[in-house]
Amino acid sequence: METESGYNRFSRFKVLMHAENIDRFLQNGMSKPIIVDLELSNLCDHACIWCEPLEYRKGSMQMLAAETTTRAIHDIAAVGSKMVRFCGGGEPMTNPFLGQAMKIAHDRGLGVICNSNGSRILENSEYILNYCDYFRVSLDAIIPKTHDKLHCPRGQETFAKIIRGLRELVRGRNKRRGKTEIGAAFLIHPDNYQEIPAFARELLETGVDFVHFRPVCLRSEVEDQRLRAIMDAALKMVSRCRQQLETEDFKIFGITKKMEGVWFEREWKKCYSPFFLPVLGANGRIYACCDRRDFDLGDYQEHGFADVYHSTAFREKARAIDVRKCLRCTNRDLNEVIHFCFEQDSLKRDLL
After folding, report:
1. Sequence-ordered list of residues with C-beta below 8 angstroms from that of 323, at least 6 positions apart, any chain
2. How many CB atoms are closer than 10 A to CB 169?
3. Measured between alpha carbons, how far is 206 from 245 in angstroms, rounded to an integer?
4. What is the model's pLDDT at position 264?
5. What is the pLDDT of residue 258?
6. What is the pLDDT of residue 211?
7. So what's the pLDDT on residue 88?
8. Closest to 275 measured CA to CA, from 34, 28, 83
9. Residues 216, 221, 222: CA angle, nearest 5 degrees
10. Measured distance CA(6)–CA(245) in Å, rounded
11. What is the pLDDT of residue 234?
12. Distance between CA 161 and CA 61 in Å, rounded?
């Protein structure tokens, strides 16, 4: 199940807007990143039970230095990327340079995205409102006890602080008539799915622009079976919430696409993520995506992102990725659309 209208922020159609970039890459191997994930920190004040990078972070508890961050942002702009996303790794707001990093990216003409657990919104609200185009909190519950169970935060009354931060952020945005889009994410899990309706109602009341629901990726087969068993009920709840609560100013999305390559056979054979959606880790390494930390594509801290990205070694390593070894495909839309629409021309693109 995807959101009812195909024309929205999560639509796979967006890939087609970058046809010139993709065509050029398929013809001569030259590409420009569309979005670059820049992970400022591997430190985190939460310990979510499903955290994908947890094992990677245990051996790499690092934070990007201001100089490295600044150079990376200038490189991201120089190679032609449209946006930079500050995310994890760990929690980007644990790096005190985040606000300045947002400003540098904004001043270079990059769109700025920040994904956060929300624990430090209040301390960073001015930077978010001044320089961030899209801000999203991974909340995943509406009952504080459930949030504590799933996120395992360090500190007292974390959930209340996050909600207070969201309210203050929305209030500040509206007061200055700002354009920062503010949203909240909910990973569907057997221990939280009953809270979907209350979550949607509460977030509508806070004034955020959207919420999105999608299934969590669980590595344990037993846990995955538990998840599959509740998914129909969970997605029906999302659909009812959309019918009852959605307005012009508040959108509700249900997204299952990241798990379709896990639950159903995937048909694409190549990974294009490194070329269009690369990840710059807080340890100075470049990765194909947030899931495949075993695929190290180069050292941007030593050589600079632009030099590594345009190198033959980077492209050879990226082309060697075996998608059969990926549990899920976090960039499924990109890989599937390129496979069917560009490589196979399944749409017959000139036949309008």
Report:
1. 266, 268, 269, 270, 271, 329, 335
2. 26
3. 13
4. 65
5. 61
6. 98
7. 85
8. 34
9. 95
10. 19
11. 95
12. 25
Q: What is the maximum span of the chain, computed from C-alpha positions, in angstroms?
A: 60
| Total Cβ atoms within 10 A of residue 184 | 25
pLDDT in tens, 225-234: 999 999 999 9
- pLDDT tens by residue, 120-175: 999 999 999 999 999 999 999 999 999 999 999 988 789 999 999 999 999 999 99
DSSP reduced 3-state for 254: strand
Which residue, among 34, 4, 131, 24, has the nearest Cα to 334 in the 3D structure? Answer: 34
In sequence order, the 6+-apart residues with CB closer than 8 A to the CB of 7 are 13
Of 289, 260, 241, which Cα lies nearest the Cα of 39? 289
pLDDT at residue 58 in the model: 67
Give me the residue spans of the domains in the chain: 12-343
Cβ–Cβ under 8 Å, residues 183 and 212 = yes
Place of tokens 């600044």: 70
Burial of residue 71 (CB within 10 Å: 0-12, 13-18, 19+) is: middle
Q: Indicate the length of the chain as a whole number.
A: 352
Rounded (5°) CA angle 170-183-256 = 170
Do 117 and 94 form a contact (C-beta atoms < 8 A)? no
Domain boundaries 12-343, corresponding CATH code: 3.20.20.70
Q: What residues in the chain have per-residue pLDDT under 50?
A: 1
Query: What 3-state class would DSSP assign to 39?
Result: strand
Dihedral sign from CA coordinates of 47, 254, 217, 61: negative
Neighbours of 27 (CB within 10 A): 8
Q: What is the C-alpha separation between 90 and 87, in angstroms, rounded? A: 7
The residues, any chain, with a CB within 8 Å of residue 223's CB and separated by 6 or more, are 190
